[in-house]
Design brief:
The complex is a heterodimer of chains A (269) and B (443).
Chain A: H1 2-17, E1 23-29, H2 35-49, E2 53-60, H3 62-71, E3 76-81, H4 82-88, E4 97-105, E5 107-110, E6 119-125, H5 131-139, E7 143-149, H6 152-161, E8 166-169, H7 171-179, E9 183-187, E10 209-217, H8 221-232, H9 235-243, H10 254-266
Parallel strand pairs in A: 1-2, 1-3, 6-7, 6-8
Antiparallel strand pairs in A: 3-10, 4-10, 5-8, 5-9
Chain B: H1 2-19, H2 24-31, H3 33-36, H4 41-58, H5 60-66, H6 75-86, H7 90-119, H8 129-145, H9 147-150, H10 152-166, E1 169-170, E2 177-178, H11 192-211, H12 226-235, H13 237-250, H14 259-272, H15 277-302, H16 308-319, H17 330-369, H18 371-392, H19 396-412, H20 419-442
Antiparallel strand pairs in B: 1-2
Helix pairs in contact in B: 1-2, 1-4, 1-17, 2-16, 4-15, 4-17, 5-6, 5-7, 6-7, 6-15, 7-12, 7-13, 7-15, 7-17, 8-20, 10-20, 11-18, 11-19, 11-20, 13-14, 13-15, 14-15, 16-20, 18-19
């Protein structure tokens, strides 16, 4: 009898601290219109359609969402990305990693009419480590001036406005630049993307890639992963991935995905 | 349907804002913040459009009846309007002003679309940092030399405070936090709302509290047949068109809003027809409404606010994720957006004609009752708005501290115009980023 009571108590403690994916706080972060915000809202919509009770908490800033995640004792999840994880030193691990959404290379795009200039002004988001890109451009005999912007949308504005001759951007930025008639030199993944060759065709040096993920705490990760993977196949995600010409990660186990994400993180250190 | 509801809300708020001296567009935007916080980009723009168009109209009513300008650009109406009221012709003046406002709106919409036809294909060049720096410099020149009767040192002091307040947190061009003094909530910067309340709203309403004009107010409206109003308008139509065109082009001058257009067209008519107050009044009113659309262009096209209320709506739009070029097909989207907005602008002016006057009469009765009670209630509401948004932003304590500190400073600023401070606070981070980039590119 005592054993049963002890077991029941133990179960109640377990249930209260690691709730199932049936109810979860989703930490929205990033500006509306930006990738983080878009992904957050798409996950919330898709999970609610699956019957998951989602409490959306708009924390606006990614760093604030990470702080919240570190301290909360409630089940909570958020979208995340490898370069930001490395920047905040809040790395993906077996305890917080739920699923990868897509893996993308970074794109070096350049204004064709100015590519023969001796000095290249290179636009990029303020968080990006550009050492490998600068090293490559310098190896081709160019001087490089770096111009920093708040986000990839502003980088694109800068290049279109004539601030910068070249830019390092994500796939969404490259899609928009190409839509405006621009072209890209290479992408840092191992394959040709958006008709842009892989960097491996130009140099053997390592270049960073990025991985977009979902992380969570205080919840049953496997149950949430099933729901998140189903969400990634929802109509909203399919439409959005098609718009930015992104192929989602499929067919890998959680540990295989985590290995890919950790490798991307390592590229940003 | 959502758009229509938003527009009607803007018209109702605009009616009240125009009627209550000193409340105006900026204070209304702050008071409505908890609702506007939930709006998307188009809703925000439509609300702002309806609010400012309505204020142009209803601001005329206290000016004509009481000689008290509801908004700063109603000054010509507050000089010429009472001349009509004394002859029991207040409704002729108000009706004429409303119709000339609609003509101003149509002329403004047509000029905007014509201008956009040439501007939009070259829009991307406006995002060049050097060009943006030149525009910001122009805005700064106006902030320094035009506000507070051109008291340069006072304006520089206000600009420096605004800039300093914007510095804590993250910059737009570098990672890492600065000036947070170990206070975690400051990593996200000093919140805009208590800055607006403390430095802008409180000084504005205190100024009016001290004036307390309620004793003079009586509404004396004798109906005038519409036909008579139309005939009067037709007789003055040249002045109305002249005012519309002058008002439109003056609307582009940073920091002046529609004040410059209104006063310029008024001055011109005064010179051309010194003994005809009707021409002067109608020309100034049409200039008001056409100038509104022009002053929005720099904001909506390239994200540079040039008037005080635009600075606030700019803050709200960027919070809602607005970024003028963050779209795949800029040309199509911009053309569609401005076509939509221009059509709405004309519709709004027509709705105002039908809705605003009956509602304005009710509001006029409120002012005549107890204006100072209204001001105190406004302050209490502002405190709760600030607390509520502090709670939503997870920074309740910081919002409280900022509210009381800034309101105290605001009290001492009540005899000055604090717009240079507000302007700089809102544009500081972008201005700093633009300046840094120009340095990185050219040096």
């Amino acid at each position: 009898m005592n054993k049963n009571i002890f077991f029941a108590l133990l179960m109640s403690v377990f249930v209260s601290t690691t709730a199932s994916a049936e109810s979860i706080q989703w930490l929205i972060n990033g500006s509306p219109g930006g990738t983080f915000h878009k992904r957050s809202t798409l996950y919330i919509e898709a999970l609610e359609q699956q019957g998951v009770a989602v409490e959306a908490l708009n924390l606006k800033k990614g760093s604030r969402a990470v702080e919240y995640l570190k301290t909360t004792d409630k089940p909570a999840a958020m979208v995340f990305i490898a370069d930001f994880a490395a920047e905040l030193n809040f790395l993906h691990n077996n305890d917080n990693f739920v699923a990868a959404e897509y893996v993308e290379g970074l794109f070096l795009c350049m204004n064709d009419s100015k590519k023969y200039s001796n000095t290249i002004t290179l636009g990029a988001t303020k968080g990006y480590n550009l050492d490998s890109f600068v090293g490559y451009l310098e190896s081709t005999g160019k001087d490089v001036k770096i111009v920093r912007y708040e986000n990839s949308g502003k980088v694109l504005q800068g290049v279109l406005g004539g601030d910068a001759i070249a830019m390092v951007t994500n796939q969404k930025g490259a899609v928009k630049y190409q839509a405006k008639g621009g072209s890209c030199v290479f992408n840092t993944s191992q394959e040709t993307r958006l008709g842009t060759p892989s960097v491996t065709e130009f140099t053997n040096k390592p270049f960073p890639t990025n991985a977009s993920t979902v992380i969570a705490v205080n919840t049953d990760i496997d149950t949430l992963r099933t729901a998140v993977k189903a969400a990634q196949g929802s109509a909203g995600f399919v439409k959005w991935h098609t718009a930015i010409k992104m192929t989602p990660v499929t067919g890998l186990s959680r540990s295989e995905e985590l290995a890919v994400v950790n490798e991307a993180e390592a590229g940003w250190k | 349907m959502t758009e229509l509801i938003v527009v009607l809300l803007g018209i109702l708020c605009g009616t009240a804002a125009g009627m209550l001296p000193g409340i105006g567009i900026t204070v209304t935007l702050v008071l409505m913040w908890p609702i506007l916080y939930t709006f998307g980009i188009l809703e925000l723009i439509l609300y702002y459009m309806a609010l400012s168009a309505t204020v142009q109209y209803t601001g005329t009513i206290p000016s004509v009846f009481f000689g008290v300008p509801g908004e700063s650009n109603s000054v010509p109406a507050s000089i010429e309007g009472p001349k009509f009221t004394r002859k029991n012709l207040a409704m002729l003046a108000i009706g004429g002003c409303q119709l000339s406002s609609i003509i101003g709106a149509i002329v403004g919409a047509a000029l905007t679309l014509a201008l956009l036809y040439f501007l939009i294909p070259h829009l991307q060049y406006f995002f060049n940092s050097t060009f943006k720096l030149a525009l910001y410099s122009l805005v700064l020149v106006f902030l320094i030399f035009v506000y507070n009767q051109g008291r340069v040192f006072l304006n520089l002091f206000l600009i420096a405070i605004g800039f300093s307040l914007a510095m804590p947190g993250e910059s737009m061009v570098e990672n890492g936090l600065r000036y947070t003094f170990g206070f975690y909530d400051l990593s996200f910067g000093i919140p805009l709302l208590p800055v607006l309340i403390g430095f802008l709203v409180v000084p504005t309403i205190l100024k009016n509290y001290e004036k307390d004009t309620s004793a003079k107010l009586t509404v004396n409206a004798i109906a005038i047949p519409s036909r008579k109003i139309l005939v009067w308008l037709r007789r003055n139509i040249a002045s109305v068109f002249r005012g519309s065109v002058i008002g439109y082009f003056c609307g582009f001058v940073p920091g002046m809003g529609t004040d410059l257009g209104t006063n310029s067209s008024y001055a011109l008519e005064k010179k051309l027809h010194p003994l005809k107050p009707g021409k002067q009044l109608l020309s100034a009113e049409s200039a008001n409404n056409s100038g509104v659309l022009a002053s929005w262009l720099p904001l909506l096209l390239i994200g540079i606010p040039i008037t005080s209320s635009e600075v606030i709506i700019y803050g709200m739009l960027t919070n809602a994720g607005w970024n003028p070029l963050e779209i795949t097909s800029v040309q199509d989207t911009m053309t569609n957006m401005f076509l939509t907005l221009s059509v709405w602008y004309v519709i709004i002016n027509i709705i105002v004609l039908i809705v605003a006057w009956p509602f304005a009469k009710k509001v006029a009765n409120i002012i005549t009752c107890n204006y100072n009670t209204l001001i105190i209630s406004t302050l209490v509401v502002l405190y709760f708005v600030n607390s509520y948004l502090g709670y939503l932003d997870f920074r309740f304590a910081l919002y409280q501290i900022c509210f009381f500190v800034f309101c105290t400073f605001g009290y001492f600023l009540r005899k000055h115009n604090s717009m240079p401070l507000i302007f700089m606070f809102i544009i500081a981070l972008d201005f700093e980023a633009v300046l840094t980039r120009v340095w990185q590119i050219h040096f």
